[in-house]
Hints:
Blueprint: E1 3-6, E2 9-12, H1 19-34, E3 38-41, H2 48-76, E4 95-96, E5 99-100, E6 109-113, H3 116-127, E7 135-137, H4 141-144, H5 148-151, H6 156-169, H7 173-176, H8 178-181, H9 185-188, H10 194-204, H11 208-216, E8 221-225, H12 227-230, H13 232-238, E9 246-249, H14 255-262, E10 265-267, H15 269-289, H16 307-325, E11 335-338, H17 341-347, H18 353-371, H19 381-393, E12 410-416, H20 419-422, E13 440-446, H21 450-458, E14 463-468, H22 474-481, E15 487-490, E16 500-504, H23 524-540, E17 544-549, H24 552-565, H25 567-574, E18 577-579, H26 587-599, E19 606-611, E20 629-632, H27 643-658, H28 668-684, E21 695-699, H29 707-710, E22 721-723, H30 727-744, H31 777-780, H32 783-786, H33 803-808, H34 831-842, H35 877-895, H36 898-914, H37 917-923, H38 934-939, H39 946-960, H40 974-989, H41 1016-1028, H42 1030-1046, H43 1049-1060, H44 1080-1089
Region (Disordered): 749-778, 838-882
InterPro entries: ATP-dep_Helicase_C (IPR006555), DinG/Rad3-like (IPR045028), Helic_SF1/SF2_ATP-bd_DinG/Rad3 (IPR014013), Helicase-like_DEXD_c2 (IPR006554), P-loop_NTPase (IPR027417), RAD3-like_helicase_DEAD (IPR010614), Rad3/Chl1-like (IPR013020), RTEL1 (IPR030845)
EC number: 5.6.2.-
Amino acid sequence: MPLLTLNGVTINFPFTPYECQNDYMSKVIECLQQKVNGVLESPTGTGKTLCLLCATLAWRDHFKDTISARKITERLKGAEMFPDMPVATWGTAATDGDGTTYYTDIPKIIYASRTHSQLSQVISELKNTAYRPKMCVLGSRDQMCIHPEVMRQESHHMKVHMCKAKVAARSCAFYNNVEEKGTDKDLVNSIMDVEDLVKAGNMHRVCPYYLSRTLKTQAEIIFMPYNYLLDPKSRRAQNLDLKGAVIIFDEAHNVERICEESTSFDLTPYDLTSAIEVVNSVLQEQADGATNGNVLLFFVSDLNLNVAAIAKIKQMLLDLEAVIDSYEVSSEKGLTKPGSFIFELFKKANLTFETKSAMCDALEQITTYVTGKTGIFMNTAGLQKLSEIFQLVFCGEPKEGNPEKEMQANTVHIHKDNSFNKKPQKVDVWASSSTKKLGNILSYWCFSPGFSMQDLKRQGVRSIILTSGTLSPLQSFTAEMQIPFPVALENTHVIQRDQIFVGVVDQGPDGVQLSSTYDRRFVPENMASLGNTVANFGRVVPHGLLVFFPSYPVMDKTLEFWRANGHAGRIENMKPMFVEPKGKSNFSEVIEGYYNQVNDATSKGGSFFAVCRGKASEGLDFSDNYGRAVIITGLPFPPKMDPRVMLKMQFLDETSRKKIPGVKCLSGSDWYRQQASRAVNQAIGRVIRHKEDYGAIFLCDRRFKNADVQAQLPKWLRPYIRRYDNFGNMVRDVAQFFRVAQKMRPLVPKAAGGRDSSSGPGTLCSSSTGCSGGQSNSVQAPLAAQKAKLLDSHVPSLKRRKLSEYHSDGMARLSIQYSTEMPSSQRPGTLMDALAHSDRQHGGEGASGLSTRSLQHDKDMDDKSRGGKRKIKLVQEQENTHSKARRFLTEMRKSLSQMNYQKVMDALQAYKRLDDLGVLQAEAAVLLVDANTHVLYRGLYKFLRPHHKKLFNEKCQELTGQGCGYKEEDSLSKEEKEALVLQQTGKVLKYLNTSLQLNKGGQHLGVHTSSDGKGPRESFLAAVKGTFGAEMSNQLLLAMRRYEKDDDYESLITIAVGLLTQKDDNLVLLEGKFVHPHHKKQFKEIQRRG
């Protein structure tokens, strides 16, 4: 690996860096040497992550070397150890600032990114460097716990309480091994991401969660999600010592939002009522159990609380609920007060600095007590939320100063809870109707991300570096942080001019001006012109086309207009349309369909319609053919009438008028424009993903012609902006651009309809490999890094894995085996065995089932919406059931986290063994938390035994507002269904007249030939076809063929009778000659009953 020296620091870099990479590393080192903060923007594909790691670790090694050089110089007293290498050349920073440095002063590096998926990618980059620092990665119990009982808990806070209880009792074998394994060299010196750490934990039977905290004490670089740093509660929980540390925020374009959310909350009536119910249940239980002595002095077992104390807690919560609901607020505006009002409000419920500790301790004890109880499920999320709220509000102590001054960045807003009428709250399966009442919401909103940044600086950190591919506009971004950033960089790109086309489209092909302003966005002429514009660009843009709208309502109404007026049909004919759904449930299916469409060598590509700030605009990689062009249809300003947006702008205006010395303040209007520009910049960043990539960007709004709007675009992009007075000239130039680009940078063609999982989208562009050696990220990325380049984890449903991958770890597809009986020798032992049995019987299900005709984004992808010209395969009813089950399980895996998916799978296993519907409902309650997963909860209906289906259907109707399509016959057992079949068959057999059918009344067992020369099978099928038509005859033929293979007589009879009894005058055409000898007795019994 080549060595280079920047600012006196020697860096071991994997390849000869580009100029923009040298500039970036120089700025990083400048921040570290001068102990100042920096904000560094470098476009995606410029090797940002690799540069950041190499520069930071090289500087740290250099810092260590200078200390060694000073110590050796002191020992030698002026003499030289090596004549040809003077000690002075070993390092020139023997002191750091004014003081002498020691080995204990060597800074730790804390590398924070938005998600664990991104951190995994960063760690895989670290493996590609020459540096091998001691490291650790911090995560939550959700990701790291391997204790089976803790993993089965309903929610994160329940896992926390159970884990703490087991650790305190030393009943967790994994935790008990941490002290011994914490010094294991293989673990201490290994570079491991979360997945590696969990694997190592399972291998060594040691807790990954507590092992990572042990490794943290000696780590030189620590990786963590950046909410661990910005959220004061999380920072205290992680016990992070930040003094002298270097803090790096990668993908920092979301830091502003996380800073604000970490010191904000919304307390809903549901939260309070559910907390009161839990406290009341504990109080009632203990009061009932106090049979002797004074009830008020009776102490709860496992709690350091008497009944009187629990009653007092309940009363305080009731008082808080009453205080919040006592304010009369209008449904539109609500009631707004300064942040310090929160103390006045809480004081009315006797919640103060003096009572805070006792209150939080009591809530913690009650939560632990309830969590530890077996055989009962109570939703303790409300208790946990209240505890966190009290800790946030009363985070300081009165003696440390006036805490109200720190509340100046916050606002209290009380408003009506209208969510019950719009979207259901998180649902507790066993919640009573009282938890569903309406009331007021208490909101406590922070409007200054600078509060969290200033708090970090007060911890004594050395430097804070914020970096991302899209931080522009930098001036407004740094103004919001309210700490100085002496070092700033808006880096150039590694691409050439012939790789990027940027055009401002202020009017469509019909000459109508394009605008997404409030008064123009839904004007028919404007929507029609935009539709014509997209259709025309679809003709000249090869492969994948991305279209971003300002919001979901704008996208919905525009697409509706296009469908009604033919624009959608024109686009569809050239590039089949795929639309980003609002919820999680269908996103992976839609994006997979888009990828497959683009990969289809016989098609002209596809078009993907999405929303700025949506799932597709952040963290999703549309490299190469998956995103050859982006169309921005307007400026995505936040909803101006939203109370939080209005109060934020008002807060900024008031702050800017104060003109605080040394602090740059952003006005409300500046912030409002900044939000739109940054959302546009994020969407634009989906296209050019590495050095050899190319693409076009179309800014389809007349406001993009304004110089002040263009100034908000990334600096590297501005020189490429082209302005046209004629739409036709732009289309001509775009066509020429792509002709030249395709000739100069041809891609290796992919197989039709297929996609290489190692090089397809869904990989986040590796910062180093994206531009090293001039090769594509997907080609150069090592296999070990590819697991870290899946779609972003902030959308769990984006973890697109092939079904075949699940077979390897036992998480295979599931087939229904509950309602039907099988011989004991064939019956699957587990759900996984059931799947294997189903696959052997029916074969696998195709993976590319998504049609290119779907414009639905908030409906299930049923067969009709997938339809179009898709070939329909006729299968039997039972085979359709298996196929639906597999699709259901696949969809559930995509929509849920791995932990929740496993929980539901375990619940299904337990249900099969125990036949206990209550256990299944309790464990599957995770599917009721989000309205988007209600359909998955209803989908469990197909796995239930008949005697539970009616009850479950009623419960679904109550909890989700929709039933499962229950019919009376669904409750019939197998024996009852058989009796019904025999009864129906008996009625139909009365019509049998063998003298007129098939063999003219001859013997059923012989081999006969009809008068037309056909054999019995041909004659039989001809008669069936003539009576029922081709479709039913094909189904019956399939049933007969299966019967010949699997000897499943009951399936044959069930399907045959189902087909042959649809009309009263149908003749029974199924004769004994096609029934195997050992089944003839049963068949004759059917005839006899007839």
